[in-house]
Amino acid sequence: MRVPRRPGDPRPRPPRSLRRRLILGATALATAAVLVSQFIGFAVLRSWLLDRVDQQLTDFHPPERAYADALRGTLPDQRPDILPSDFRVYFYDASGHRVDTSLGTDTEPGPRLADPVSALGLRAGRPETVDATTGDSRWRVLLTPGPDGMNSVVALPLDTVDGASDKILWINAVLLLLTVLALFTLGRWVVGLGLLPLTRMEHTAERIGAGRLDLRLPDTDRHTEIGRLGRVLNSMLDRLQQALRERETSERRMRRFVADAGHELRTPLTAIQGYAQLALQSEHLTAEQRGEGNRVIASNAERMSLLVDDLQLLARLDREPSYRSEPVDLLALAADAVRAAAAYRESHPVELAPLALPDSGDALEVVEADGDAHRLGQILENLLSNARVHTPAGTPVHVRVGETTVSDTGCGTDRPGRTSVSPPLPAGTPVGVIEVADEGPGLTARYAEHVFERFYRADPSRSRAHGGSGLGLSIAAAIAEGHGGRLELDTAPGEGCTFRLVLPARPTEGATGRSIA
Fold first, then answer.
1. pLDDT average, residue stretch 487-507
2. Domains of the chain
3. What is this structure's pTM?
4. Which of 14, 251, 273, 337 is 20 to 30 A from 410 in CA distance terms?
């Protein structure tokens, strides 16, 4: 839950860009690394310089006679060349008090040494750092025991060490500043080069957002993170484009369906409206004309009612199909359909026969499948009615029943010359099959491709005058697919039409397992 910002609350800082965060992060890390290396280098160099001074102090030992001369006050003149370098030596007598005379030049302030020796806080053989008597200079001093209980303090100035340290600090500061500037400048170029694939992705995404849905991200190297991201995004774009295509196709089909439904309903409504207006002028009509008008109104009302029933049935099948699941004898189902079609045997004789299988006899065998007998019977009634309506008078119709298995060359699969709106069944599946084949003119591949579409009529001869609304095969295909099977059509010009209902068969003893071509 997002908490609203109250008046007076500080505004949230806008997030930094990835490029800026990478540049600042890399510069900060590199700066920290340079600082650490400079600190270590400075500490090592200063320690080495102090060790050199300490080594000089340790290696120097005042001569023994200098202790006696210091007590007598007869030390040599204080010339710089008496002691090496800038050494100074101070003496303490046996009682611990400092002697007034010392060795070394007195041109610069010496170290600040306490009197007596116990107040120095020095331990023999361990150098220490003390301040000068005046100024900011410092000295390195070493307490050395002498003869007769005396002690001496040898001192060296740290001006050279401090001067070198100061110069190194200034040099390190300048180098650090130059390094940070160089890292920031080069970091921008390096980060920009590294983010170049993301920049290309950004530009491509902008063009895709502008409507170029066919574009894809260019970087898809699976060995890089950006490449893997590009592959995932391209896959997502493919799916989105496919979804958009399916949505457009669905919208086109829906618009076509609504237009076709409106067109189908307009004709009977127009007829009803016209004859109803004519009936209002009943005083000018004869009894025969009124009867003809009423007959036309009733006929078109019945036709419109059937069309609405078909539309409602399709809507239910699309939304939430529900079928009873019980054993259905396909042979008995086919026999009932043939018996009902016997009324039209003079124009379209119907024959019930076994399915054409290799090495099969002429005997009909029971074939069972699970499903809704009423709905499956509706499919057969539709197929037989379709054969009667769309073939010339005298065309024989053959109904065949049998059991087989799905194979690459048999039924239940897709192959050239076959049409179906349902997916193929897995190979090797035992299926029960009912064929409704006619010996009519057949259909071309162009017309056969659309026979299962709603409100489709193959040619002008298949018009409303010949009955049907163009929904029967759509309903039959939907029912077949709802039973886990499919409705398929094999046809060619001059070879008639063979509609085949394929359903998963119930396991029975003595299953042949044969396939049909």
1. 89
2. 17-194 (no CATH), 246-316 (1.10.287.130), 323-504 (3.30.565.10)
3. 0.50
4. 337
